[in-house]
Amino acid sequence: MGIDAIVWWLFAAVSVVGSLFAVLSPSIVRAVFSLLLAFGGVAGIYAVAGADFLAILQIVVYVGGVLVLIAFGILLTGRTAQALGEHEVKNRPLGILIAAGIFIGLLGALMKSSFKIGGNATNEPTTEAIGKLLLGDYIVAFEFASVFLLMALIGAAYLVRREEA
Amino acid sequence: MQVDLPSYVPWIIFAPAIAALIQHFRGEKLPRKGDLVVIGGILVSAFLSFRLMFEWAALEPGQYFEQTWSWFTLAGGHTFTMGIVVDGLTASLLCVVTLVATLVFCFSTAYMKGDEYYHRFFFWLSFFAVSMLILTLADNLLMLFMGWELVGLCSYKLIGFWSKEIPNAEAAKKAFITTRVGDVGMLIGMLILYATCDSLSIKAIFEGVQAGKFAGSETALTWAGIGIFFGAVGKSAQFPLQIWLPDAMAGPTPVSALIHAATMVAAGVYLTARMFPIFTPDALGFIAWTGGITALLAALVAFTQTDIKKVLAYSTVSQLGYMIMGVGVGAPWAGMFHLTTHAMFKACLFLGSGSVIHAMHHAQDLKDMGGLAKKMPITFATFSIATLALAGAPFFSGFLSKDAILIEAWENGHGALFFIGLGAAFGTAFYMGRLVYLCFLGKPRNQEKYDHAHESPWVMTVPLIILAALSLSVFYDGFADKFYRTPAYAAEFPITETNTHAYWTTGQRPDDFHEGHGPSWFHTVAMLMGVIGLGVGGAIFMSGKRNEKTRLLPSGLHDLAAGKYYMDELYLDGFVASANRLADGCTWVDDNIVDGLVNTSGKGGLVLGVVSADADQLVVDGAVNLTAAATQGAGAVASTAQSGRVRNYLAAALGVTAVAVVLLVFVIG
Amino acid sequence: MSIGPYHYLGLAAALFAIGVIGVVTRRNAIGVLIGVELMLNAANINLVAFSRFSGGLDAQIFAIFVIVIAAAEAAVALAIILQLFEKRSDVDVDRARTLRG
Q1: Which residue range is the domain that position C68 belongs to?
Q2: Which residues 6+ apart lie within 8 Å of B581 measured at CB?
Q3: Residue B148 and residue B337: Cα distance in Å, rounded?
Q4: Residues of C in contact with B651 (CB under 8 A)
Q5: ipTM of the modeled complex
Q6: Is C26 helix (H, G, I), strand (E, B) or coil?
Q7: Domain for residue C12, yes or no?
Q8: Inter-chain residue contact A105 with B662, CB threshold 8 Å
Q9: What is the CATH number of the domain that holds C55?
Q10: Domain assignment present for C53
């Protein structure tokens, strides 16, 4: 096993363990911190796969943005998060059954398929190339994404406004 | 020969489309609630249509405009194109649609004045124009089908425009569902053609048929033709799907004039004429007889109706039968010709009836009318001219086109259909005579309404005058020869084995063609049919003893016709009732069996939970939870126990996904 | 044994399944959101894997757009959760039962 493979398995383990805790932990606060671990692990996987820009993006957006948002959410809805306590998780056997079904199904599909490997990406920095693609071939999608984000921003702001009496 | 399309042609569609968009978003806030925008849009479209028609007319015979763009490609290299083809059929129908639409839009500004949803009415009118123009200009069946369904939608929205009244909403629903039955047939026909020719472009289909792709399976081609024709049966209200059109008169009268008389219902005739080269002789026989039977049956029903719009509605069904018969006997040019002339005089009749209804404050029954000629001279004059045209009196447009159909029926050896057509022509003249007399002549039967009646404003009478003028035969001299004898592709695809009239597909007169005179007594008889019919229809009321309730048919036949041949009841008892029974059965199974199971297992879980309260918490919890989960899962799947918990719905959806994935991968794959 | 596409896709399948557990079993709306984020991440791992083993960068572009959408989704979802909290002073998805028929 090369050093790459060892690092890969390490990050994979981190993300799987982190996400398992994130969904199984009865405390929502612990769940969020486990999610941090899971996101970090996934970022590591990206890095090993040679997607350095995505790895950074994963850290910046998920860890820096989404996680902080979720933390704020818990902060603002704090009272009940504790009040739910041990009843927080429900129907666990059913959930695990469904997840196992999906997992086994996906693995089965994976085993039956074969992938043509078109060439290994080199471990060169991807940022420049991605930048050119985003502002070149994908410029329309990029612009739409900006508008979409603006819409989400306005929508979110509209949703949380206080009703005027 | 194909010629490049002038660049302004797409604007024929875009102009009303932009107007519709503006009307949709800003209509209510614009001055006059935006009707001027919509009229402007259709005026641009009409102007361009006429320009296009003149440009087309300047081409050599047999030439047509066509342009296609690639649209999308499916896996396996099946490319779909969209395109516009402009030949005589298209050019004339474009002008008919945009002209009648313009006049009807103007008429509507007065007729719908003060309506709460005035702006929305104009939005749907404009949207209808867009859809109809897409249908008209399409050079492939897919685009045509899109326009086809869109006009159906507009028709539905406009029939049910005053949907606060339940019968109107019911009529809209009936129209939508009934035409949908025909559309399924059309879709099947399209699929057969696509499966064999690997394209939905009309040109490619003709090429495929000509290249003998159906060789050895002419039955399949017959069924494809009948399938396509079934779309026309639904849309053009042919027997046995004619039941929706009379009910569709629940919509505002301008809508009846535009959609249910002049344009949309004629789309079926246009489709059969456009697709004519694919019809085998068997399919054509089917088409001809469907049209003939419709023409006669609907004319008889019109004898018994007392609602002014219903009489005109059955007349429309009857005339559409005529056109379809024209196509079926191998003379699509005659069918199309009748479509054009009919659009003008029938729109005039409907708008005239709208003018009367407007004057009578929305009374439609003949019992309230009579003697209105004095009060509404312009309406009466235009209505009479259009009636003469419909009855087929000489010097009016209907005479030319109806004659053409009857002669073609005779020439092509359909003797029985010829006499059926002659009978229907007499019937038409007769009930129109009855209508005009009962409405405009004689003594007023409702003095109060009569006293309040008044001539309509000029925005309503001017369209009437224009349409009445266009019902004169002088405008149609040589018209059919110019526009309908050589449709697009005709010169390129002389598919002579599959149809009966080489004249249509090659543009060449066969040697034994008799220059369309038919039997020598024909013109005399046809002329007499119209005039005598009208005269008798009016004169029998002259004595004042008879009124709109008088039975003009033998008693049994009258009951049958007045009951519309009991087809509504047949459909209600047959199809709708069986569907309802099936639904009831499903409800019973749901209530008694599924719910029972769900409740029992739920109770079981509850009992188990109570009894073993002291037992090992973990095991019991698990069991109870599992039972509850199973209950909830089953409940959600059977969609009976709607808990309202989104999470449970999600769990059910994901659970089904998991099962499906596992099955797909391990069992099926 | 070097790491091939199967490893990545297997890992993605695992994360996706774990995310499903979170979505199905959590009563706290924020917990549900966490599950959804995990599922989106799993999809992204697939895209990165395809990018790595096909030699092109286009799949990574898609991954970027997925991240954009995930971020927007998180923002809107939290706005909804906060509004829910405002209205009912809890974030228990099981008590929001207005869909009940």
Answers
A1: 5-88
A2: none
A3: 21
A4: 24
A5: 0.88
A6: strand
A7: yes
A8: yes
A9: 1.10.287.3510
A10: yes
Which residues, 6+ apart, have CB-to-CB distance to C21 below 8 Å? A23, A24, A92, A95, A96, A98, A99, C35
Q: How does pLDDT run across B325-366, given as a tens digit for each residue?
A: 988 887 888 888 899 999 989 999 988 888 888 888 777 888
Helix (H) or strand (E) holding B64: strand B64-74
Strands B2-3, B64-74: parallel, antiparallel or unpaired by DSSP? parallel
Q: How far is Cα B465 from Cα B382, in angstroms, rounded to an integer?
A: 6
* Count of other CB atoms within 10 angstroms of residue B273: 26
- Asked whether residue C95 is assigned to any structural domain, the reply reads no
Q: Which of B642, B651, B654 has the CB atom closest to C100's CB atom?
A: B642
What CA–CA distance (Å, rounded) separates B290 from B358?
36
**Residues of chain C by 3-state class (helix, strand, coil), percent to 5:** 75, 5, 20
> Which pLDDT score is estimated for B567?
75
How many Cβ atoms from other residues are within 10 Å of residue B361's Cβ?
10
In a domain, C100, yes or no: no
- The position carrying tokens 């035409």 is B179
Q: Is residue B348 within 8 Å of residue B386, measured between CB atoms?
A: yes
Q: Which two tokens stand for residue B72?
A: 């999308």
pLDDT digits (tens, 9 = 90+) for B606-615: 666 566 555 5
DSSP code at position B615: S
Torsion of CA C39, C42, C48, C49, to 10 degrees: -150
Of the listed ranges A37-46, B312-321, B421-430, B620-629, the one predicted with least confidence? B620-629
- Is the pTM higher than 0.80? The answer reads no
pLDDT over 80 at B108, yes or no: yes
* Cβ–Cβ below 8 Å for B654 and A104: no
User: Tens digits of per-residue pLDDT, B516-548?
Assistant: 455 666 767 777 777 788 888 777 777 766 766
Encoded tokens for A146: 């900006």
Print the SS3 string covering B616-645. Answer: CHHHHHHHHHHHHHHHHHHHHHCCCCCCCC
Beta B78-86 vs B64-74: how paired, if at all? antiparallel
Among C23, C27, C98, the residue with its CB nearest the CB of B644 is C98
- Are A160 and C52 in contact (CB < 8 Å)? no
Distance from C-alpha of B264 to C-alpha of B269, rounded to nearest angstrom: 10
Chain centre to alpha carbon of residue B611: 68
In sequence order, what are the beta bridge partners of B2? B64
Min Cα–Cα distance to chain A from B633, Å: 9
Per DSSP, what are the bridge partners of residue B365? B307
And the tokens for B533? 């019919």
Q: How many domains does chain C have?
A: 1
Distance CA B337, CA C91 (A): 69
Largest CA distance in chain C: 55
* Torsion over CA: C90, C92, C95, C100 (sign): positive
